[in-house]
Amino acid sequence: MSVDRQILALAVPALGALVAEPLFVLVDSAVVGHLGTDPLAGLGLASTLLVTVVGLCVFLAYATTAAVSRRLGAGDQRGAMQMGVDGLWLAVGLGLALAAATWAGARPLVEALGARGAVADEAVTYLHWSAPGLPGMLVVLAATGALRGLQDTRTPLGVAASGAVVNAVLNVALVLGLHRGIGGSGAGTAATQLAMGAVLATVVARGARERGVSLRPATAGIWSNARAGTPLLVRTLSLRAAILLAAWVATGLGAVSLAGHQVVSAVWGLAAFALDALAIAAQALVGHALGAGDVARVRAVLRRTLQWGVGAGAVLGLVVGGASWWYVRAFSSDDDVRRAAVAALVVAAVTMPMAGWVFVLDGVLIGAGDGRFLAWAGVGTFVAFVPAALAVHGWAPSGAAGLAWLWVAFAGVFMAARATTTGWRARGDDWIRLGL
């Protein structure tokens, strides 16, 4: 099979699964937006915190994909499944601990981002109702990573698509039908995430039993997964710190800018996850090729996925920017919020081709197990972003102009720093390590 066909065979189903996840945020935003500006702004803060918590644990998917695909390339199917089982147990433990911490710390976390009054109350309510879904979400990450490493992106697609539909129905029923407010939105999302985690864990467990792998927790394997994921945790922490910093700046610009920032963040997340489908294909194919000792294949995957990434980013940019004034109407009836969102979306659209480059290179280096470099690069890119964010906080006006400048800093300065560091690394050979 050609490289292009392999990329598409993995990326297209992965695209559906990844797009389904940010649809949770989009649906929540569209439903809660009809409750008013304060609930939408509160959702913006709460969802930023939740996405940060889950994002810090994305190594459960990324590290597992790299490890499983490398073992599969080396012909060790039983070892590949054992990595997947160990990842599930690690996800359960982390999920329970983070759910408790998020519920207990909801008010201090929200106030640390500068929210007060009605906006803070709405954010805390959403966090309290949605926190119980965190164990399910982390199990989804770990199980999806294992299945991607086995080059099965269709199963996560089916589960994610079903979950998106269920989440939409529950949100409409609880918020608009039963009038449960923003808490109904959080409860519906949490219930959906728990159900998705249960389904995917069952699929991985069935595959493990077919290969004679024990389902009991193995302390050594769990700690091995945790150690392997630590560099990626640092890398993700730097990324989430940048997202939190952007939310803090948006909060300081006022409720209109914060509500608009929530809309732009939701759309950016949808586009970013769409581009990340190519990164997932790169992870699985690069890991498999390295396990098999095929350097030529590694280089071919790198070249073609980069071309696909930049091209897809250009297409997405045209859609995100060109149609922005029409689709923002689904999120808010406030004209000021709409204008702010459109201004920032145009900025984000211009940077989409660069984003495609960044996400693909991230996927290639993660698939190669180059986590240590990504950790240091992540810290460096965050440091580059901080002065730009603080400049917006100190000097930018409120409303549309301020939000546009914030996205110049985030989608422009921050993403350019990421593009530079990962591009420099990929030009060399230090990241190419063959075998197990």
Q: What's the helical proportion of residues?
A: over 70%
Total beta strands: 0
Overall tally of domains: 1
The parts where pLDDT drops under 50 for at least 5 residues are none
Give the overall shape: globular
Number of helices: 17
Structural class: mainly alpha
Largest sheet: none
Give descriptors for this structure.
436 residues; single chain; mainly alpha
Could you describe the 3D structure shown?
With 436 residues, the protein is an all-alpha fold. It has one domain (3-427). The protein has 17 helices and no strands. Helix 1 packs antiparallel against helix 9 and helix 6 packs parallel to helix 9.
Short recap of the structure:
By secondary structure, the protein is an all-alpha fold. The protein is built from 17 helices and no strands. The protein has one domain.
Write the layout of secondary structure elements.
Blueprint: H1 3-33, H2 37-56, H3 59-73, H4 77-104, H5 106-112, H6 117-130, H7 134-149, H8 154-177, H9 181-210, H10 219-252, H11 255-291, H12 295-322, H13 324-327, H14 335-350, H15 352-367, H16 371-395, H17 400-427
Helix pairs in contact: 1-2, 1-8, 1-9, 1-11, 2-6, 2-10, 2-11, 3-4, 3-7, 3-10, 3-11, 4-7, 4-9, 4-10, 5-6, 6-9, 7-9, 8-9, 10-11, 10-16, 10-17, 11-12, 11-14, 11-15, 12-14, 12-15, 14-17, 15-17, 16-17
